[in-house]
């Protein structure tokens, strides 16, 4: 450092600056000479008053600081060294003392053995001492212990019921009033119970109970205006006092009181009403004696069923004496090991052995009887069956009688196919009789001379002719099994029938005619009444005129009288007519709306049309088109033949027809 | 006398005794003598500040004992 300063001093001098002050060297003469600060103590100019003095002082300052720093470093180093040394010492001190191997302090084995007894004694002594100490401690504790006896006469601020069994409660001394009118006794309370109580009270106060509760059915000890009791007398506190023997004082008192107190009311047992309970309609099970079936047979039977490959033979139960019944009962009472798996099924069927036996006997009897039938009988029976079977009509008729068989077109068709040959045969056989009958009824028979004129050939022809229509008729019925469709060629009746069949024309209501007839009758009656009234009026007038009463009157009077008479008659007539109306007149009103296409409209459609008329504005184009299309479709449907299969095949025809006839049905293929 | 540390952050660090009243030019000459680089190539500045001007003294820049100055290469512009 000094070297640097000297170097830099050289440079400084070269640069024309004053050199730095060198610490070791004596102050140069060139620079200003400063006074020694110690000497200057009494002088009044301050040590660092000027820039110069301060600059001069700077080196000393620096040196001082340097020294201080050095000293501090030194001290720290020393401290560290001391600490290190101390730590080391500490570490070594821990290792001091006897090690395991060092123990025994050079005792040889013999002496050690000799001393062992002494050592044992010493250990024993120590233990005894310890025990004694423990005992003494315990005794001391017992002397201090706080027992139930100490709690005698202490009050507890809760009800006894609040302490639930098995729940531990910690009781603490209750805060007593300082000024209070307390009696100064200690009172215990459980904090948790207290909290619970407070909460309950708070909730109760929130409930806003009514003062008078009609449902509250407490016994009579209630005072008048009981709700103010708390305010006047203060809160009633539930307190019991411990008596130091595991009981409470109150309890003991209560027990005493109970014993002395005479009972107020009369006790009345309600069991009195109980003993005439209604007698059951069913018999008591215990009264019924059921003869138990023998178990052995049951078990064997069950086994047989279980095996399944053996035909179950009904085992004959050995006859059992009736005296044994008691014994049997005893038998059944103990559990039967023979049948571990007893099912309900088994029981219900096999239980009734007697019935089974009876039925079996009957069956056997029946079998025997049947076997007795002779071969002749069998033959006859077969013949009968044979003769019966071809007659299909009969069978169908039989079938007809049975409930649940539905005859539709298809079955009819099939029946007709089978019927044909049989019928023809029968017709052939019954031809002569038939002929005779037809002869008698036919118009040909009436004018016999024509027939007389006919030759034998023609008679033969006649015979054939008679046969033809019947054939044609039969063909008419049986070609398809379905009815022929009506056509318009048969006149008005045919057309009507066709329309009816198609369901286009509804069957006229039967009472429509009745209505008409009623109306006509009513009108006739009315007319009759009117005419009779008129006749009567005329007669009266005639009488008046003949009696000469009118002659005496003036014309004015006559007029008056005539008017009066007329009025009277009118009144009578009106009354009669009214009577008639009320008795007979039943108006039959139907509102028919017909649209521009001539269709009947229902109520809805009619309303729509009226609405359109009223507003002068009809449906839009699309709606109108739809409506027209619907009408078109309806027309087409009406025009189409009933059995038309062009649209959806065979299956549809019947469906359509059924729809027209309003029948529900399923086609069977 | 103050001691000022000159550091170029590249491994060269020198402590230079001087007076606070020294002009920067003289200080640079002393630094040059110490680190072996011509004085006109030396630029001194406090960290993050503008370089020292030759005409001013260290005092003017508030340089006191123990202050460290940054040393940079002065390229002349």
Automatic annotation (TrEMBL), chain A:
The keyword Coiled coil applies. This is DNA binding protein SART-1. The keyword Oxidoreductase does not apply. It is found in: Nucleus. GO terms for biological process: maturation of 5S rRNA; mRNA cis splicing, via spliceosome. It comes from Lepidopterella palustris CBS 459.81. It comes from the Eukaryota. Its main location: nucleus. Residues 643-655 have a biased composition (Polar residues). Keywords: Coiled coil, Nucleus. Residues 291-302, 658-669 have a biased composition (Basic residues). Residues 374-386, 539-563, 622-637 have a biased composition (Basic and acidic residues). Residues 119-146 form a coiled coil. Residues 18-61, 201-223, 291-322, 363-490, 527-570, 613-669 are annotated as: Disordered. One of its GO terms (cellular component) is U4/U6 x U5 tri-snRNP complex. Belongs to the SNU66/SART1 family. Pfam families: SART-1 (PF03343).
UniProtKB/TrEMBL annotation, chain B:
Residues 2-71 form the Ubiquitin-like domain. Keywords: Ubl conjugation pathway. Gene3D superfamilies: Phosphatidylinositol 3-kinase Catalytic Subunit, Chain A, domain 1. This is Ubiquitin-like modifier HUB1. It comes from Lepidopterella palustris CBS 459.81.
